[in-house]
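Is flavin mononucleotide placement plausible here? Inputs below.
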Amino acid sequence: MSVELSVNLGGLVMKNPVTVASGTFGSGREYAELWSASPSCPGPLNALGAITTKGVSFEPWAGNPGIRITETASGMLNSIGLQNGGVEYFCSNDLVWLASQNVPVIVNVSGHSGEEYTKVIQRLEREEAVAAYEVNISCPNVASGGMSFGTDAAAAAEVTKLCRQATKRPLLVKLTPNVTDITEIARAVEAAGADAISLINTVAGMAIDAQKRTKVFDRGVAGLSGPAVKPVALYAVYRVYQAVDIPLLGIGGIRSACDAVEFFLAGATAVAVGTANFSDPLRALRLAEELSAWCASEGIQDIKELRGALKDG
Ligand SMILES: Cc1cc2nc3c(=O)[nH]c(=O)nc-3n(C[C@H](O)[C@H](O)[C@H](O)COP(=O)(O)O)c2cc1C
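Reply from A.M.:
I modeled the complex. Tokens:
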């Protein structure tokens, strides 16, 4: 039985509902090299519905000093700090390569101010290879910008409005779970012109070295991801699905077809694989295949049948 897997994520047409979560996949080049060297690899990069890049800022960002990653029970904490080479570097290196891969590219956009987000998008508007933007207003690992926009409905709306004015391309806005009411922020970014919402970014957490009696991360706070956050992400998708009319990209601890299906039932249109890429670099690619098999075994002809199809009980 052939299963229809294509979805439309706020204007971005994806041949299947699987992308990768920003920051866990670089711009895909290292993974593509690894995949092509793997005899069990099920396909090339463009077997994914889309690629989502690491966050891109206007100027280069150095990222955070000190320890940047530590493992936790069922997940990991990171404090990368949105390190990247800036939009010019991205365009002349990563994007040139991505353009040859024949896969929709979602560029994740970072900034310290609304103006900085806009400048990144304005520069990327000159590039044909960009299919959509994902505006990150939800990173807990930077001192200014990032999550400070995503925890305040008015600030989230303002950044979204400025980005909206800069592009007609599909505009995804990525939300943080570190708020009291995520539906308030979701409604604000929808009203300001977002075409879709990505959720969730990492959950704020910390690690302490008992022996040294010190914080593990220089900034104290870090972002929790992986299977540990899946229930938080599912609940966020479930609530936001009932609050807005625009499509949702579900992110958080997704490893298997069953995980992805749970997100579709909660209301997601597409899903992204993040931390799971680190333990299984072929995970995202296999997920698209596994979803097709899961649907076929359940007699589901079109993946869209699952969206929001949670039953009472
Ligand atoms: C090492 C690392 C770097 C990340 N960098 C970014 C980033 O640049 N921009 C962004 O929006 N999210 C970033 N994230 C958040 C992920 O895209 C994702 O929202 C989060 O990790 C939850 O998904 P997961 O549990 O599947 O990893 C990063 C996550 C990790 C683990």
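Short version: The CA atoms of residues 31 and 154 lie 38 Å apart.
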